[in-house]
């Protein structure tokens, strides 16, 4: 194609190219504060409580997600409810009864005191209860699990026992 023929074909393109998209230059325009992410949650970060159930291998620690200010109460309620469907499918079982009530767990002392209604009398149930309470209290105040002392007032038996967790 000769130069003289190409020029008429390219001339419209050369004239329209500087026009761009038709939007003229502008200066920055104030538009408020910069973009931010979603609002912060008020319930605090997701955390885990650990509940102890039995399997063919013995006592096993199971993690459960929770949000809230009461890891001990949450762990005890989860323990009393027993393993969920997925945990049962993995062969986990629980010796459970009505939820025990925390009587005291002074932070930083490595001690927990519980009042347990009927259903927590067997050695297996007591072991589950002690390890679940010790784990929740130890997680809350930084005390290593084997050093947390759990005192359980067993209402059905009319006695009180103090144990540590040895899973």
UniProtKB/TrEMBL annotation:
Task: Give the signal peptide, or none.
Answer: 1-21
Disordered as annotated region, ranges? 90-109
Q: Which UniProt keywords apply?
A: Signal
What is the protein name stated in its UniProt record? Answer: Sporulation and spore germination
What is the native source organism of this protein?
Streptomyces griseoaurantiacus
């Amino acid at each position: 194609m000769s130069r003289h023929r190409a020029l008429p074909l390219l001339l419209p393109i050369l004239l329209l190219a500087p026009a761009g998209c038709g939007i003229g230059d502008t200066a920055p325009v104030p538009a408020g504060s910069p973009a931010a992410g979603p609002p912060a949650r008020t319930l605090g970060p997701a955390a885990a409580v650990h509940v102890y159930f039995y399997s063919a291998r013995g006592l096993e620690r199971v993690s459960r997600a929770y949000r809230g200010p009461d890891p001990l109460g949450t762990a005890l309620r989860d323990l009393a409810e027993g393993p969920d469907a997925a945990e049962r499918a993995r062969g986990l079982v629980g010796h459970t009864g009505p939820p025990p009530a925390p009587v005291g767990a002074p932070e930083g002392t490595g001690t927990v005191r519980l009042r347990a209604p009927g259903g927590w009398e067997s050695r297996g149930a007591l072991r589950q209860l002690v390890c679940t309470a010790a784990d929740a209290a130890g997680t809350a105040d930084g005390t290593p699990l084997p050093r947390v002392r759990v005192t359980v007032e067993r209402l059905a038996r009319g006695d009180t026992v103090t144990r540590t967790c040895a899973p």
